[in-house]
Structures are given as structure tokens and as C-alpha cells.
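If it is no trouble, can you show me the amino acids of a protein and the C-alpha cells describing how it folds?
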Amino acid sequence: MRHYLSDEEKLKIKIANLPTVEHEKVELNDRLTFEEARILFRYKDGKIYWIKKSANRINIGDEAGGIRTFKSNLHRIITLRRKQYLTGQIIFLLIHGYLPKYLIFKDGNTLNTNLDNLTAGNHSKRIYSNLKKVKTHLNLKGISYNTERKKYRASIQVKGKTYYLGLYESIEIAKKAYNLAVKKLYGDIACFND
């Protein structure tokens, strides 16, 4: 007698086989270190303040950096030893002890440098956070309708490769499949189908 897996069991297997999305650290060659950051800066309420002078024009207690356009977004940027750092990078360094290769602003607002809005990422997470608002003709992310089979197809892209999560009779089950996959891959920056 043949045993068939349910759609839910098949989905669990597919999600378990998705690749892991790890964040990457910046090589610290000639970059700001955790120890230097602790000496120069203090973090409070999403802002960085100087606690030690690094140049004549800096006053202790002033908010560090200024607002500038960087990669077509407004950011608060701190220049130190002729290198530029995003305020969020320094906050992340002060709290977690390393600079992430990609810093992701969960709400998309690059001026919101509150700790709960910052997360480390990699190229895949950065692309995902930039494209997470893109929806199909069904107005859902990662869900399309297969007219040939008259079912809803759930899929997700990771590192430029598409992973199919299955064909489903119901749009609700397809949304659930997509939501489970993005939760596994992207955790706290996941953008779910409602």
C-alpha cells in the first residue's frame, strides 16, 4: 500500500530544504573597531553622541554625523579618519561588537536608527528588503495562479534562485506556505502576505 504525504508534510520538507541566509561581517582592515567605537561614542535613543574629541570641530556631547544622501537615500553619516560610516553601523557595532556587511532598516526608513529597527543582513536579505513590497497580479508576494492546473503556486527567491513551495487549491494555503518560508529565511525582517 502506498503512503502519500499531505500538502502540509510536503511543505515542511520543502521549507526545511531552503538554504540558510547568513549575515556577513565586514573585514576590519583599517576600519573602526568595537574598542575605538566605545571610546568615541555613546548610544542613546537611536542616536550617537561624541564622548571624546576626534577633531577640533567636534564638541563632546554633540550628536555625531550629519544627514547626507548615500546610495539614493538620506542617511546620517559620520566621517572618521577619512572613512564614512552610517550611524546605524556604529550603533550596531556598539551593541553587537562587529560591523555588518549589510545593514538593513526593517521599516525602510534609513533615518530611523533605533536599535529595534536595525538588523544585519547579507546581499540576499538586502535585495529582499528592497523588493519586499513587489507583488504579483494577485496583489500577493510570491503567489501566482497556474491557469493550466487551476491552482495557486507559491515560490520564493533566494540568492537569485527560485524555490517552488508547491501548488495549492486554496489561495490561503499558498499564502501560508509563502509566509512560513519567508519567516524561516528572513526572520524579523520578513514581510508576510496578509
User: Anything to note?
Assistant: The helical segments are 7-16, 34-40, 87-96, 123-131, 171-186. The chain has two domains: 7-22+127-189, 34-121. The first strand starts at residue 41 and ends at 44. Confidence is low (pLDDT under 50) at residues 131-135.
